[in-house]
Amino acid sequence: MTYKLFLDDIRDVNMVYKKLTNEDFIVVRNSHDFKKVILEKGLPELISFDNDLGLDENDQVAEDGYACAKWLVYESGIDLKNLKFNVHSANPVASKQIQGLLDNYIKHLRSQAMN
For 73, what's the count of Cα atoms within 13 Å in the CB-facing half-sphere? Predict the structure, then answer.
């Protein structure tokens, strides 16, 4: 089963993608659910990342989208060679961090595959 994953604590899909709705994605609001869905369903055909995910249940700053991207790269053990993703965060610094980490890692994996 292929699916798309939308990580955002506040926005709905149609606020980011004008022609799509929450019906087109599995929407997750925090890093815990992000990891849980991927571990249960496998890598989605597309991940759309927000970075700033509000507060957790203890009113502490929640683990962010960059932490989710780092989990994918360093801990998940999933082959990300064909990962498709978009960063829709309004945070320009974090957007660049997520984009850079995933772009560079995927480029590395693809270059290893050619050797």
Answer: 19
Distance CA 14, CA 23 (A): 10
Q: Give Cα 63 to chain centroid, integer Å.
A: 12
Q: Could you tell me the CA-to-CA distances from 77 to 27, 43, 71, 72 in Å, in that order?
A: 22, 11, 9, 7
Residues 92 and 66 sit within 8 Å (Cβ to Cβ): no
pLDDT in tens, 64-79: 999 999 999 999 999 9
Question: Which of 49, 56, 90, 92 lies closest to 73 in space, CA to CA?
Answer: 49
d(CA 111, CA 81): 10
Query: Looking up tokens 């960059």, which residue turns up?
Result: 66
Q: What are the pLDDT digits (tens) for 26-65? A: 999 999 999 999 999 999 999 999 999 999 889 999 999 9
